[in-house]
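Whether sequence alone determines local backbone shape is best considered at the level of individual chains. When preparing material for the folding task, we compiled for one chain both its residues and its backbone structure tokens. The sequence in question and its structure tokens are set out directly beneath this paragraph.
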Amino acid sequence: MLPPGPSQLALLQTLRIITQPVSFLLSCADRYGDWFTLRVLGPQSPPVVFVSDPEAILAIFSSLADQLELGRIADVFRPLVGNESLIMQNGDRHRQQRQLLMPALQGERLFDYTPAMTAITQAAIAQWPLGQPLDLRRQMSQISLAVILQVVFGLTPGPRYRDLYQRLDQLLEAITDPLYSLQFFWPALQQDWGNWSPWGRFCRQREAIDALITAEIQEGRQSQQPRQDVLELLLAARDRDGNPLSDQELRDQLMTLLLLGHETTASALTWAVFWLLRHPDCLNRLQSELVAIGDNDRAIAKAPYLDAVCREALRLQPIALIAQPRRVASPLSLGGYDFASGTILVPCVLTAHRRAATYPNPDQFQPNRFLERRFSNGEFLPFGGGQRSCIGMALSLIEMKMVLATLLRQCQIAEVSQRPVRPARRGITFVPSQDFRIQVQQWHNPSAQTAIASV
């Protein structure tokens, strides 16, 4: 027997989850609890079961992984990230690639990237006009792209950096547009009829971007100078047969990190600032912690309340509403239910993060939750879980901390929104609606600000 769910026609359920995903999923969780079944994949849809139960989510991520298939859900990203991308792989190939890439994206190496993150943020904020409304989401997007280009790609400011920045910025803005992004979901629209056709323009954009990335990869192979970026480590990586990554493999992994780490981190940062401005007590506590720490980047990255603020922002408004769906390959039982082959199981990040049994007063912003206890991957899963968790999650979290800390240390900001702010879809993420505006009220160190702005 399947979990309960709405009795509406499949078409109506599909429309609701497309147009009102946050309210629809939360209303289903309120009515049906940790398990509910939807019909949202067309008239012949297999059952799609959304799961919030922590133990069941952990089982999906780990002990039941061999009984579940990932299917072709990531294919929508293939034109952007390429065939060699980690997210396109399954089985042994996926495990081997993940083991090859992880050393560059975790552990002590992450602290080598913090000075660049701080400097990029300082330079960007120095250009913000005093006392004028700012679209913070857009500003964070520009900072995040600059961080990826310097920390991941290893680019330094110059002609190639500026060219790639502009082209990627245009592409990443375009793919969040619903009409533009339709062509990634419908292969029939992927027809290159020259520059006048939408897909043709995308192909020309991709070719120009690929040429710039390939040039950087080839220059990195030839360079004898030490670098402190992710590309350097990927260039040095060897598989179990001693072979390096090809130019195409490197290109595809870099584009994967860009696509999955750019808009998501920018959106998470925007939400963190949103909640802090709405909760002055939390903001004051965080500022006090940062003042006590001083200029030590490593100490900032490890600051407990800063970490709690970032995690609570990711909990309360997760950037992705669901983790990667799994298809039941052979019949299994879980949570008291029996699932036939073909059933789709969806760990639901949004409803798991709003589960009152896990998070008392779940609709409130309370960073202290993450100081008082540790949450399992079945309870807190902003980056997914198991072998399919986001490979750049540690890098994204440390970037959030460094950018947020730099912003709060550099200036005093206030919200100047004129209308209510609500979650709004932006590509694969959910961000504060465009009504959210901030302004710089004063610089904490005007003389230093002038020096930064002149760099």
Notes: The longest helix spans residues 247-278.
